[in-house]
Every structure is written in C-alpha cells, then in structure tokens.
C-alpha cells in the first residue's frame, strides 16, 4: 500500500441500467482530489492510520462505547497481506489494512463470525458477560455466561441443548472455545435477526451491513466521518470465505488505497470489492 492523494468516491447505481460509457463518465466526475494523503503508514489504529477525506471530520463517540472500541481496533503493519485460516496468503490488493485479530486454524471465522467476535470481545473485556449471547440458525440461544459457568452445548440433528456441570471458568481460552461453537452453528441468517434495521443516513461506527443467507455476507462499519453539510463517509471491514484475516477494504471504485465510501453517492447499491449491498441492509445493535 502506497501513499496516495487521490480519493475516488464509491458510485452506487443499478449496473444493468447504465451504459458502459456513462459509467466511465460518472467515475471520472466523482474524483475528489485530497489536499493531504489519506494514509499514514505508521498509524497503529484505524484513527491514526487513515486521515478523513477533505472537509470531513470524525465525530467523537461516547467514552467506553462499542463505537470507540471499534475505532480503536489495532492494525497490523502497513502492507501486511490477508491470510486464510490455513496460513495461505490471499493474493489480493483490495484491502487497505489488516486488523490485528487471529483467524484460527479452522474455516470458521468468516464474515458474520468476525463481527460477532469483535462484539463479544468488547463485552468480555468489560466483564459484561450477560451481554454476550448469539442465536444459532435454528434459534437456540447460546449465552456465554452459561458456558463460562460450566455448561456445554450438545447438538443432535436439529436438537440443540445444554448439558454438563464443569467448574466455572471465565478465562480467555474458554471464551474462545465458546466462540468456536458459535461460529459453527450461527451465521449471517441468524445474526441478521439479532440486529435492527436503520436508515443509511443514521450510520454510526459499529453498525453492520448484512444480507442473511447461504451464502450471505456481513461487513462492520469501523469508522464514520461527517462534513458540515451532514454528509457521511464510512469505512468497512470484513472477513470472507474461506475464513481469513479481518481486513478493511478499499473503496470498490478506487484504484488507490482509500478505504472511504460516501453515503451521498449511494443510490441503489453499495458496491464493495467482494459484495454488493442495498441501502436497506444497514443494521445496528
């Protein structure tokens, strides 16, 4: 990833209805020249690594909030590649940064799973254990506190149940074993039901773009900036299939390294490198 001063805002439209020459014309018209570079290679967090687009500023988030936690997620060194769960490097230049979070050695921590982990770790480190709970696709409520207090989850066909009476253990290792169970039986279809739809213009750090299904996809809004007109720019992070490094994606229309998208450009589609979302796909916790 190299420092660059051109930011090309994402264009969102119905591809089938717009001729190719018109698409090229729109892309050219949407080039925004930055007065400063977007990238600071030495930055170790989202906020310190990426400057906002010209005219945009980050709005303060409430102290101790999930939004502050997300915006403060640590990043791996600039230029690090995306790796699959098996250690193989993903040959892609569509990411702007890698969030410093393990993937595991199984093909489990995919798109929704990575977001559930970020959410769960936020509550884990705050010791708000009662807030850690996810539903499986079949509707089973997998609460972390029951797991930490010694119960385990059994699966027999379509039947899911609690069993066992082990010693209470709130260690991080036991917490990660709980998440592996969640990854195995939850996904975008179940996760979407736990979230609340919200208007795109109300987007905040920590919101989720999600389409539930098999396959479906989910991306975490990891940063938001706003200009004087109230227009918002936003940044997205994802894991994908197979399970891989949780990474911030580049602007889907940008030939450079900018990760910023503009809500003002959204008409019909939010086009990302791996998935196309609809404006109605935004959800919050």
Give the N-terminus to C-terminus distance in angstroms: 32 Å
Radius of gyration based on Cα positions? 20 Å
Which sequence of SSEs, written as H and E, runs from N to C?
A: EHEHEHEEEHEEHEEHHEEEEEEEEE
Mean pLDDT: 88
Q: Write down the domain tally.
A: 2
Largest sheet: 9 strands, antiparallel
What does this structure look like?
With 285 residues, the chain is of the alpha+beta class. It folds into 2 domains: 6-102 and 193-284, no CATH class; 114-186, no CATH class. 21% of the residues lie in helices and 24% in strands. It is built from 7 helices and 19 strands. It has helices spanning 20-29, 46-49, 66-71, 111-125, 144-148, 172-185, 188-194; strands at 6-8, 31-33, 57-58, 82-83, 89-90, 95-98, 133-135, 141-143, 152-156, 159-163, 196-197, 208-211, 217-226, 232-238, 247-249, 261-262, 270-271, 276-277, 282-284. Strands 3, 6, 11, 12, 13, 14, 15, 16 and 19 form a 9-stranded antiparallel sheet that branches. The chain has a two-stranded antiparallel ribbon with strand order 1-2. A hairpin with a 2-residue loop joins strand 9 and strand 10. Helix 4 runs antiparallel to helix 6 (172-185). The longest helix has 15 residues, at 111-125. It is globular and about 55 Å long. It starts with 5 loop residues before the first strand and ends with a strand. Residues 1-19 and 25-36 have low confidence and may be disordered.
